Structures are given as structure tokens and as C-alpha cells.
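Session log. Operator J.P. requested a structure for one protein chain; no other inputs attached. Running the standard single-chain path with C-alpha cell output.
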Amino acid sequence: MSEANPRATRSRGRVLTLAALATGAGAAAWALRDVPAAFGRRPDAERDARIRTSPQYADGTFHNAPSTVARASEGRPNVDRSTVRRMLFEREGRTPLRPVPTASAVGERDRPAPQGVEITWYGHASALVEIEGTRVLLDPMWSERCSPSAHVGPKRLHPVPTELEELPPVDVVLISHDHYDHLDMDTVRRLVRSQSAPFAVPLGIGGHLRRWGVPEHRIIELDWSETCTLGDLTVTLTSAHHFSGRALARNTTLWGSWVIAGPTRKVFYTGDSGYFEGYATIGAEHGPFDASLVQIGAYDEAWADIHMTPEDAVLAHRDLGGGLLVPVHWCTFNLGLHPWAEPVERLLVEAKAQGVAVAVPRPGERVDVANPPELEGWWEGLA
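Structure written below.
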């Protein structure tokens, strides 16, 4: 028997190592192939006069309105070493241990729009607002992960209750800002095929939509306090205390909240925001509202200026002159440092103390604002 050649063995080892590296690199490249497109397109303020002349735009970025209430003026997340350590290692209780119950209606696509006000929450911040015969889809996010990659990033904690293509025809899609849990490339592309409604978005977000194939005639970009009328429906972009960005560049697109108005009824959606005096101003100018969809999750002391606590949410709802409070931005993704069910539990304690009516639907459940369901505590015991 001939002895093995050490040099040949080392050579074969190097070949195998190189092959493994090439295979791994190829797999990584395949997994990340859509990431550059998901980043969207940074707006060109030099060419876009509407961005350049916006009262919210200065020194190359958008800014929050001055505030004596919000804890920071620029709305930037404060992520220090302590916060990162907590995010990585203090994970107990932040996800449900049992399946989250969902509701799925049959025949939604052919259902006529109600003449009153009904709200269907699909999870996280995605919701369908039906108001006096028109339909408005808020921050649709139907992907498995809120991330530029389909393989890395926060994963959905419950399945989508209704497939996107099963939604009834909508009159407009509203986007509050361009973070991945509110503006999802794959969802937008699917909506281009399954719906014909326009997308109304804050200034600068149109660049993302154009890159993803949304036709120009379906893109409406608005600044704060600007209004768009679509038949009997009027939508107005109002302020929020937050920030934007999908890659390294921050605040090159605007963020906001939405006033949704029919002929006689109104609904408000906060988007993401820290608590600030803008809610009282919006309530005075546009309220009162039959219902408000208010962000309650992913809060922390480190970013109190960009995400409200549940107690802040009740205060904002009262400032707005809201009727029924429907909490959003919780349950679906693990994006905060608090226990999974804590947002709704704290919300209900504060709402009871302040005499505020609340509806907490299961993902996919429709709420008739004039006759909301009794609280059932479906979230209890899941985590």
C-alpha cells in the first residue's frame, strides 16, 4: 500500500475548503439577493422641489417639529450597550408560548363596504378602515419577516389571518413611514397586482415605490397638513414624532400620521410616534374621531421620544378626541424589550382609569365601531 502524499492531502483540503466557502458565499448571495431592492431609492432633494422646500426639511434631512413634551427633539433611537445587551439576552416572555388566535372571514373580496365605520386589524400596524362606503388599507405588511431579507430579521409570531389577494377592493393604501415593519417591498409588489388603488405616502417615499414597480399615477406624496380627496374620502397627512430610514441614511423621507375622513365620520391613525403636543393640535383641527388606531408596542425608556407607552397611547387618544381606541403595533413581531402581552395589559388598566373605550380584536377580526365587541382577554395565558 502506498503512503498518502501529505502535500496532495493538504491540497485536496484546500480545494474542499474553497468549495465550501464558495458554496456558502453563493448561498448567502442567494439569500440576500433582494436586499438592495428592498432598501428602496433615496430621494434626490436637489431635484425634488417639494422635498427641498418642505418646512420639515433642512440640512439634507427631515426633522420633527420642535417639542417641549417629547423627550428628544430629533426622534433618533438611543441604542447603547445596555440596550443591545437587553435585546440579545433578556428575551424571556417576549414571544407567545402558544399559538395566537386569529380570525379569518370567508368571502371578504366580494363583501360590500359598510356605510358606518368598521376596522379590521390584521396584526402589527396593518389594518383595513372601512368608512361610509370606502376602504383604506393602513401600513400593509404581509411578509414573514420585517426585514430587507426574507431569511434574516424579526419573524412573524402568528400567520397572516387573511391572504392579501383576498382583501376587498380598497380606495387608497396609506403608509405612515418607511421602516420595514410598515413599508414592505413584497407586500407592495403584490398590491400592485391585486389592487388598483393609489398609494398615499409621506414625501420621499415615492422613490421606494417607483423602484418596486408602482406606476406613477398610483403614487401620491404629501407633506404634513396636505390633503388628498378621493371621491367621498379625504385623507390628510398629519405630524408624528418619529424618524425614517431603510439603510444607513436616516430621515431622507418624511414620516407622519393620518386623518381618514368620510362625509360625516372620521378615523385617526398614529403611525409610529412618541407622545407630543401635536396630538392636541390634530384633535383641535381635525377631531373629534369616531375611532383612533394607536401604537402601543415596542416602547422603552431608551426610545421614549419615538414610540409611545400604553399610558401615552391613552393620553394621545384623549388629546385627539377619540371615541373607540383600537391598539395596534403589538402582538405580531418581537420588536421591543417588554413582555409580549404587556402593552395591551397596561393599556387596559390606564384606559379603565381614564374612562376610555377600547376594542382589542384578534388579528383578522373586524370591529364595528358603533357596536364594539366586549373584551375577551384572548391574549391571556399565551405567554
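Operator note: The longest strand covers residues 117-123.
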